[in-house]
Design a protein that fits this description.
2 domains, 4-stranded antiparallel β-sheet, 12 helices, globular
Amino acid sequence: MMLRNNTLPPFIHARKMSSSGAENDDDDMEPLNNCISLLHMIRSRVPGSRKLFWRNVRMECERFHQESLEWSKWRLLAAMQALSIYLIIKVDEGPTEYDNGLDSLIVAVVVTLATQMGGRVGDATLDNGGLDTRWDNWIFEESKRRLCVIYQVVDMLVYFQPAGMCHVRQQAELVIAPLPSKKQLWQAGDGFAWQAESDKEEAEARVAFALAANGELARLDLTGLLCITDWTSLHRGRDAGAPAWRTADWDEWCAGMDELGGLVMLAASLTA
């Protein structure tokens, strides 16, 4: 998709690949820019390009592991997005003559970067700041949610150790939570369009949905949910007899989703 008509996959936001982001600069997006360059390399089908591609992926992974402690949250996110693309290609190709421990290296780097991202306290929980700042904060948190879908679905197709590190999902009987936001929010062309969409049925827009372990769509009815770990702390304050979540309608949810909705539906079919 990234090589066709200059489009981006639905877990990478167009704003952060441009120069218009409030916190964005070329260095922050370098991991993704390098990834795109490497994808063009394998698309060329020049003899030896596949071997050179995986050699460069290895070098990128080693660099991520060594340098990431000094990175901003946006650069960490870009690296995690690049790793997800490398992982998808690796799963599609299967074992190759170029592996030589690359699988374990990718796993180790994903764990390292995910741990660092988890330790960053995002600003998305705060409503202060200008419009562009609030939009950027939302993009960051939504990008993490969408990236989580990718890694969890990969874990359903092939065993992927980092996806199982979140024990809260098992305790809550939720596979993916929260699910991505509607496409109107994700595809908003500017901060004003995003704010206008956010203001529409604001209470409904803040309701969190999740994929339950039985394949059902779960409505959590909790506002401000950024991560499944938040759900457990927020749920403790509810009545003891209250249900953890209510079943929602898949058709209604899918109607407001972009391409990532199909991937969530695939995950639901694998759990049902």
